[in-house]
Amino acid sequence: VWTCDEWRFQYKLALARVSTVQKLMAESSSGPNWAFCKPCGVGAWCYLIASMGLQALWSLGLACLDGYALKVKRDLNNAVLVSLFVVGDWVTAILSFAASCSAAGVTVLFERDISFCRRYYELPCGRFQLATAFAFLSWALSATSAVIMFWLLASF
């Protein structure tokens, strides 16, 4: 039951991350026409959107499978099924971490290194930081799930 709650929380965090970036894209497209202003104009943000979309789909699928197993009172302790969960969790955890780190690098670049946020106050730098924080929270839950699934696989 705990893993179902964890997967639902991962799904909600990934959706919050994707919705924050979509709001950034909508605001940026109505503002000045700068290449750096659109989040998908920066490769790190495109990668983060794709990674969090995959994370949301993976977490939703696992939560639905877990809920179905609880409903029909079936046990999911099958070695093949758990190994699939381990591989999927590790792949999504690694992709989420890489995307979060690249988005954090772009955020630091905008905020501190080249001072775009001070010069161009139209940039929603606070939302960039919030989106990156959501991405790291999603990665932390995904990595926790991957470690737990690995321990479950080792117990077979």
TrEMBL record:
It is a multi-pass membrane protein. The keyword Metal-binding does not apply. Residues 43-141 form the Casparian strip membrane protein domain. Belongs to the Casparian strip membrane proteins (CASP) family. The keyword Ligase does not apply. PANTHER family: CASP-LIKE PROTEIN 5B2, CASP-LIKE PROTEIN 5B3. This is CASP-like protein. It comes from Aegilops tauschii subsp. strangulata. Homodimer and heterodimers. It holds the Pfam family CASP_dom. It comes from the Eukaryota. The chain crosses the membrane at residues 45-70, 90-110, 130-154. Its main location: membrane. GO terms for cellular component: plasma membrane. Keywords: Cell membrane, Membrane, Transmembrane, Transmembrane helix. It is found in: Cell membrane.
